[in-house]
Every structure is written in C-alpha cells, then in structure tokens.
Write a structure and sequence with these properties.
elongated, mainly alpha, 2 strands, 15 helices, disordered N terminus, two-stranded antiparallel ribbon
Length: 386
Amino acid sequence: MIQSETRLYGSASPATNRGQQTQLPLHSGFAISQIFKCKRPIPIKGQKPPRLNETMPLTLFYHADQQVSKCVTSLSKVGDTRSDMFRRRNEKLHVSQRTLLDAIYIIYAEIDEELKSPREYIQQLPPDDQRELTGAFSENIYFASQAVSKGYRIRGIEQHTSELIDPAQQLSASMDALRYVFHTRLSRSPLPPHHDLHGVLKDFDTSWTAFEKKICFFYFSSTYNGIPGRIDETHLFQVLMSETILRALDSKYISLDQVQSFDPSLILAIPRLSLFSALYHTPDMVNVTDSQNAFRWFRAKSELLKSVKERVSGLDADRIYILERMLVDAEGGNGQGTVNDSILQSVFVDICSVSDQLMRNKEVVGMLSKVFSMYREMPEEVTQVI
C-alpha cells in the first residue's frame, strides 16, 4: 500500500504509455499541482455560497471542495519542492482532499449496504491497510489514481501502469460527475435527505472499488510475491506466537521473567520457535509452505520451508527437543558446534535464515511487542500449557 504522500511524490515519474502525454518532471510546485487539478463546475451567476453547517453534509462538501481548489492554486506558485513552504502547502492540500473525501463518504454512508460495491477484498490485506480502507475513502488511494490518470507511474508497481490507467481515468471521470451533480444539487438546496444523489454516488463507488482493489493487489503482489490469500493471517500468526511462548514456558526453554522484561535474547528466539511451530506443532494453523497461499511474510521462502517441513517430519521427540533448544539458545544463525547432527544443523540454519529476516519488518517487531505485553502482569501458574 501507499504509505505516505511524500513517498508517492518521490515515486511518481513521467509515463509514456499509449494515449498518455508525457508530464512535467516533479521538480516544481506547479508540476505537482497539475496532478490534483480537475474539472470544476462553472459557478452559477449570482449564487451565494452555502453557509457551513455540520448537519448538512453538502455544505461540508462545498467548502472542502473550495479549499482544495485554493490549495492547488497555492501549491502551483511554489518553485522549489524541497522548501518548507512546499512541504506545508503540500500537506495542507492533502488534508483538504481528505476532508473532501470524508464529506463525500458521509453522504455515501446513507446508501443501503446491499447497493454498495462489495469490498470483501479488504479482508485479504494486511491489518494496517484494512484499517486505512475501512469506513472511508482513502486519500492515499485517491492521490494514486490522480497521479496515474495524469500519466505518472508509481515506484514499486511500474510494471502495472498500463493496467491501472483505465480504472484511474474512470475514477477521475466519476469524481468529475459527482462534483457536477453535488454542486447542481447545492444550487437548489443543501438539505438532506440525499436520495437523488445516490445514483452518482453508486457510479463513483463502482469506479472507486475497481481502482482500489487493483492497486492494493498490485502493491501486495510486489511486496509479498503473490496475490493475497482468502483472508489475511496476521491475527492467526499472532495467536501462534502467543501459543509458542506458552509452549516454550512449559518446556522450560524460557522463563516468565524473560518474557515480562522483553529479554533481547527472545527477539530472535520466539519468531524462530513460532515458525517451527507452524511447520511442526500446528501446521494447519498458518500456511507457510504453499507457494500460492502461504502467509505473506513467508511466501517468498515457501519452497525452502516446505523442504524443512519434510525434514522435521521424521524427527523423534528427543531430536525435536534438541532442535528447539538450538533455536532458543543460539545467538547467531549458524548453530555451528551446537550439536553433531547434519539434519538438525540444516533445519536450524534454514529456519534462522527465514525467521531472522523478519526482524527487519516493523510489523513483526510490533506484533512481538504486543504479544510480550500480554504476559507482563500474568502470574506464573497461568502460563502452563493445557
């Protein structure tokens, strides 16, 4: 997913796709302001702007739309994109767009759920993306559509530009139509209900979900080497990690004091043991070996983990115990000199090579911290595995 407007600015570059005009390079406020520029309804002569009233969402829309227009003009006058002035005006413009989308969503929320475009695909995405996309029209998504529709590519998914152009342009056209219909309605009355606006909102909703699903799946594919699974398994892996801690406590591999103090030695040990649990103790809980459906953190290494799973399937209880002690006790990832057993050595090295890489992922570190915090006030007798 797009993480921030700044990253997207730096990631947009001129595209020369069929039917697209080459855009100005992103080195001036004017060039960037053109990404936000859109068709604006011609104001009706003599019409007074509606007074802002929070009980009338159309007035919120009107004033947010006006603010976006002013911010675009203001940004276009900045020469240096590295200046503090550009940063402030750029942020103000994105905030204004966010407010505009929120105002639209308030009216959109009035539509019956069965008439809205289905968005079950959101449940297939990582938790942070789910939170951003649920109950709102994400400004990050909208800005991406603006950039693509104006002929820019987005770093990380450049190869999918041609597939995004049509849905981005459809979304842009739907927004233009929505603006026109909303402003026309405002000229008559800003009062709810808004049943007469539901038609244009459903068209906008259809275009929005078509673009949102495509770009989210392209980002997911680029980041995790494959399409999302039926549901995201982040929560399941957190449960697995918690159960692994309980099993490690019960087996005396670690102490409760180590968990409660967030002992640094556990930062590598618990993810290693959790991955081993997914391969051996609870293989049906989180998929880590299917090249198409494995949990996104492990999909790129699914073939290696499939091999590890085959090697550990024949180990007896004594060797499993030795392997788990190696995963906990060895600070490095080579295990050399720990035990004279070639199979255990190879399994140890492969698990460490996959698991230790996870610690570069802030999401994994955050999950580990969250799981450890569950044990801070837990009495020792509660930590026994049933």
